[in-house]
Structure formats: structure tokens, C-alpha cells
Predict the 3D structure of the following.
Amino acid sequence: MTELYPAGHKVETGSKLFTAEDIIRFAEKFDPQPFHTDAEAAKSYVFGALCASGWHTCAGWMRCFIDFWGTEIRRLKTEGIAPPKLGPSPGFEQLQWLKPVYAGDTITYSLTSLESRPLASRPGLMLNIGLGEGVNQNGETVLRFRTKILEFE
């Protein structure tokens, strides 16, 4: 991916509106804490209002990335470029939920290429490291992490 996305190259992968209904539905299934599931109860917690689970914001990042990559594959093929095969991810590091995501917030997600190198232990595999982020409609970063994505032939 180094040729397509050199270190420092940032792509916006998409945006997601977090509605109260979506926040509650996700939280009831995966993170049922009162400040994610009950707007009234959330008022008495540190965030002061209903807010999305951090895992919900991460899931939003992943959904937008997968949609972006599908579009990117089609674009590259149209231009006569063989798109790299990506996945799975061997993990992520330094996950930070920097600000709460409230009902009504729109988060715009991005990925910045940081490094791409061959894996000495696995010939034919490349390790791509990037900075994943989510920014709300006020320009505030709400989510940040370093992601690793395998690339293969």
C-alpha cells in the first residue's frame, strides 16, 4: 500500500450520525451501562447526557473503513490498478476515547498511513500501520488508535 498511500497520507473513510435510538440499541446488546441505555439516568453520570459506547464509535470506524475500502477497490480496478488484498488485522494499540459521542453527533472517520513494511517472519505479507481517528461535527477528536492491517498477494 506504500505506493497508493505513502506515510502521512490521510483518507476520510466516511461519517456516521449517532442517534439516540442507535446508541441505546447498540448499548443494550453490547455495553449496557446506564449512560448508554437510559437518557434520563445518563443525566446523573459524569457525561451528563446519553452518549455512545466507545465500542460503538469503534464499530462505526470499522463500518466506514469497510465501505471505503470496497469503493476504493472498485476505483482502483477501473483505473487498471490491482488493489492490494487487506486483512485481517493483527490488532491495534493506544486506543483512546477522547470525548463522549452524544446523541445527534456526526463522527467523521479517517485513516492516516504511518508505516508499511514486509514481515520478515511471513514472506509475502506486508504490515501496514495507520492512525485511525474519529472527529465530531465541532472538529473535536473523539476517537484515536493505531491500527495494524495485513496486506497479502
